[in-house]
Amino acid sequence: AVEQTLSIIKPDAVAKNVIGDIYSRFEKAGLRIIAAKMKHLSRAEAEGFYAVHRERPFFGDLVSFMISGPVIIQVLEGEDAVAKHRQIMGATDPKKAEAGTIRADFAESIDENAVHGSDSLENAAIEMAYFFAATEIAPRTR
Ligand code: CMP
User: Fold this and answer.
1) S-S: 114 plus which of 22, 85, 87, 106, CB 3.0-4.6 Å?
2) Consecutive H or E run containing 38
3) Could you tell me the strand order of the sheet in which 2-9 lies?
4) 94-126 tens-digit pLDDT
5) Global pTM value
6) What is the whole-number distance in angstroms between the Cα of residue 96 and the centre of ligand 1?
7) Distance of alpha carbon 120 from its chain centroid, rounded?
8) For the chain, what is the mean pLDDT?
């Protein structure tokens, strides 16, 4: 089915100047960018986004990293978008990511892993609503 998912290009990948390369991978995989913004997250915004991880030992470092520079946040649409996006990102830990994936090519560590993608359709809806108003998401018209 056609799905929508939330994607974030994290501060490490923005600093590496590979936004275009990553967008190109989305497009080549048949994922369409239907909303996008660049944003330097506040601590409160990053903590709220990752609230499900609040009790995890890496939470503090994760939030500090996510606010260390601007990110690019987008909604991707396409057939099986949630799974397809996760496939082209590769495993959370870049050391375990398959060759040719975004994380294998651009990420340095599990903490600085270049991209985020929603892990389920349910979380995709929650994460999209966290960053975008309905009026900021552009469905296909032609
Ligand atoms: P992300 O998909 O953005 O969701 C939470 C992030 O926490 C994850 O990517 C990793 O960058 C980071 N993280 C750090 N350590 C871990 C860990 N042990 N397990 C999962 N995520 C981790």
Assistant:
1) 106
2) strand 32-39
3) 32-39, 71-79, 2-9, 115-117
4) 999 999 999 999 999 999 999 999 999 999 999
5) 0.97
6) 13
7) 13
8) 97
Q: Is 103 annotated as a binding residue?
A: yes
Task: Give the pocket of ligand 1 (CB within 6 Å).
Answer: 53, 58, 62, 92, 110-111, 113, 116
Q: What is the pLDDT of residues 71-85, one digit of tens each?
A: 999 999 999 999 999
CA–CA gap between residue 114 and residue 9 (Å, rounded): 6
CA distance 34 to 93: 28
List the residue whose alpha carbon is closest to atom 14 of ligand 1: 111
CA distance 104 to 81: 20
> pLDDT tens digit string along 13-41?
999 999 999 999 999 999 999 999 999 99
Q: Does the annotation list 142 as a binding residue?
A: no
What is the rounded CA–CA span in Å between residue 121 and residue 117? Answer: 11
Please name the residues in contact with 60: beta carbons below 8 A apart, sequence gap of 6 or more: none
* Substitution candidate for ligand 1 out of 92, 106, 113 with most atoms within 8 A of CB: 92
Query: Are 101 and 107 a contacting pair, CB within 8 Å?
Result: no
